[in-house]
Design a protein that fits this description.
Helix content is 39%, strand content 17%. The chain is α/β, with parallel strands linked by helices. Helix 5 (87-108) packs parallel to helix 6, helix 7 crosses helix 9 and helix 7 (192-200) packs across helix 11.
C-alpha cells in the first residue's frame, strides 16, 4: 500500500516507516520537523514532505500525488506534564489538527486510518492488566486529547461506512531499531530508558525519578515497556486488517509491568555502570500502574510482542545511545 506517515520523522513514526519499507509497502513521510528529525529522512530514503498537517493544500497534494491508500497518524504532542501546563496547545495539535487530516482525507477519497492512541486514555484503571473494555477516564489533557480523537473516528465511521480505522492504545514505547539504524531523540527527553542511558553516559547530570511513595512494591511507578519495532509491526498488521474488520481497538503491550527502579537496575546491568539518580516529587498526571492485556491484539491482528524482556529492549537502546549519546546529528 501507499502509506502517508504523519509524524514519520519522529520516534515511533520513523521506526514504522522502516518496517513498512521492509514489508514491501511504500511509505511517505509527512512531518513539520518541529519534533521530528531531518536526519531520519536521510537515513530512511523515502519520499518526504516537510510541512505542517494544518496546511490543507500541502496535505491534499501529498495524498493525491502519492496515491495514498492509508494514513498512519503519529504526529501528536505526547508529554503528559506539558499537557497539564499547556492544555490548549495539546487540544489544538492533537485534536483540531487531526480533524484537518480527516477532512483532507475525505476530500481526497482516502478511507483508511491507523491512529496512534495511548494507554493514557484509561487513566488510573480499576483492574490490571488493562483490557480494551476498561473504563476510559484519562487523568491528563494528553490522554483526553487522544480519547477525543478516538470518539471523532467512531463518529466518522458511522457517518461514512467506507471509512475504516484502527486505534492502537500502546503502553511505554522503548528501545531502538534492532539493527542500530534508528534511535530515540526527544527534546526535551522525558522517556525513562533514554534518560537513564544519557545519565550513565554523562550527557545529563542525573536522572530524576518522579515519586518514590506510590502504592507499589518499591514505591515507583509501574509500566509496560514495549519495543518500538513491535509497535511498528502492530500498526502494519492493523492496516492490513482494516478491510476485514473495523473499527479496531487494541492495547499494545507485553502484558507485564516493571517499576522505574527495576528498569534503572536493568539499564545499569546492560551498560555496566551505575546511573546517577535523585528522587523528586510525583509528576502531575502520572498514573500509578499501567500494563496491558494484549490478548485482543493477538486475536484480531495475529500480533504479540517479540521483545518482552526489558534487558533486550534496553540493550537495543544502549546500542544506539552509546554511538549517539546526544541523539541525531551529535
Amino acid at each position: 500500500m501507499n502509506v502517508l506517515v504523519a509524524g514519520g520523522a519522529g520516534y515511533i513514526g520513523s521506526h514504522t516507516v522502516k518496517r513498512l519499507k521492509e514489508a514491501g509497502h511504500s511509505p511517505v513521510i509527512f512531518d513539520n520537523l518541529s519534533r521530528g528529525h531531518r536526519e531520519v529522512i536521510d537515513i530512511l530514503r523515502v519520499p518526504a514532505v516537510a510541512a505542517d498537517l494544518g496546511d490543507r493544500s500541502q496535505l491534499l497534494q501529498a495524498l493525491r500525488k502519492h496515491k495514498i491508500d492509508t494514513v498512519m497518524h503519529f504526529a501528536a504532542y505526547a508529554y503528559v506534564g506539558e499537557s497539564v501546563h499547556d492544555p490548549l496547545m495539546y487540544y489544538r495539535n492533537n485534536v483540531a489538527i487531526t480533524i484537518n487530516v480527516l477532512e483532507a482525507m475525505k476530500e481526497a477519497g482516502v478511507e483508511r486510518f491507523v491512529f496512534s492512541s495511548t494507554c493514557a486514555t484509561y487513566g488510573n484503571p480499576d483492574r490490571l492488566p488493562i483490557t480494551e473494555d476498561e473504563k476510559k477516564a484519562p487523568v491528563s489533557p494528553y490522554g483526553r486529547s487522544k480519547l477525543m480523537v478516538e470518539e471523532i473516528l467512531a463518529d466518522s465511521a458511522v457517518a461514512n461506512p467506507k471509512f475504516k480505522f484502527a486505534a492502537l492504545r500502546y503502553f511505554n514505547a522503548s528501545g531502538c531499531a534492532m539493527d542500530g539504524s534508528l534511535g530515540e531523540d526527544h527534546r526535551p527527553e522525558t522517556h525513562l530508558v533514554p534518560l537513564i542511558l544519557q545519565a550513565i553516559l554523562g550527557v545529563t547530570p542525573a536522572l530524576t525519578v518522579f515519586g518514590s511513595d506510590y502504592p507499589t512494591p518499591d514505591g515507583t511507578n509501574i509500566r509496560d515497556y514495549i519495543h518500538v519495532d513491535d509497535l511498528a509491526d502492530a500498526h502494519i498488521l492493523a492496516m492490513e486488517k482494516l478491510g476485514e474488520s473495523s473499527p479496531i481497538y487494541c492495547n499494545l503491550g507485553t502484558g507485564r509491568g516493571f517499576s522505574v527502579k527495576e528498569i534503572i537496575a536493568t539499564a545499569e546491568k546492560v551498560a555496566g555502570k551505575k546511573a546517577p539518580v535523585t528522587f523528586g516529587p510525583r509528576r502531575a498526571g502520572d498514573a500509578v500502574a499501567l500494563w496491558a492485556d494484549p490478548s485482543r491484539a493477538k486475536q484480531l491482528l495475529g500480533w504479540e510482542a517479540k521483545h518482552k524482556d526489558p534487558e533486550t529492549i534496553i540493550r537495543s537502546a544502549w546500542n544506539w545511545f552509546s554511538k549517539h549519546p546526544k541523539g541525531y546529528g551529535q
